[in-house]
Write a structure and sequence with these properties.
Layout: H1 2-11, E1 28-29, E2 35-36, H2 62-68, E3 78-86, E4 89-97, E5 102-107, H3 117-126
């Protein structure tokens, strides 16, 4: 099918190119023991999950490994409202269950900000982490975040 597409594109004076991807022709087991199936070259991997289990993503690699430790819990419908700290060290997060609007505190040794660019900056600001504005340089917290 790809050859037919390439031929049709060339006959229309269009140039095909492959998207950068790490497609594997054969199955692969990563160092954590998570298996990735062979790529089916279906062309849906740019913005979608993989129904064949061939796309490396947190859903198919990191999360299953973390779940297997018994020390990891996925909390859906949770919105972190503040990063907690004591003596300059992050100690956990405060979050709201958006179904019940009940507030919880989750202690943690490590907190990773993965809630998208603008919300990460907002969380740092409302948690008083980092200098929100430096009058000497004019720099602001989150200034260099961009959308492409």
């Amino acid at each position: 099918m790809l050859k037919r597409f390439e031929s049709a594109a060339k006959s229309s004076n269009l140039h095909t190119y492959r998207l950068p991807a790490s497609n594997s022709k054969g199955g692969y087991t990563n160092p954590d023991g998570q298996y990735l199936a062979p790529c089916q070259y279906c062309a849906y991997c740019e913005r979608f999950g993989c129904e064949y289990g061939a796309k490396a993503s947190p859903l198919s690699t990191v999360i299953p490994k973390a779940m297997s430790t018994g020390k990891y819990t996925i909390r859906t419908y949770s919105n972190v409202t503040q990063i907690l700290k004591k003596d300059g060290k992050v100690t956990g997060v405060k979050f709201v269950d958006t179904r019940t609007m009940k507030e919880y505190i989750q202690p943690a040794d490590i907190v990773v900000l993965t809630s998208y660019i603008f919300n990460n900056a907002k969380l740092l600001m409302v948690s008083n982490i980092g200098e929100q504005y430096d009058p000497k340089t004019g720099e602001t917290l989150g200034r260099n975040y961009v959308i492409k």
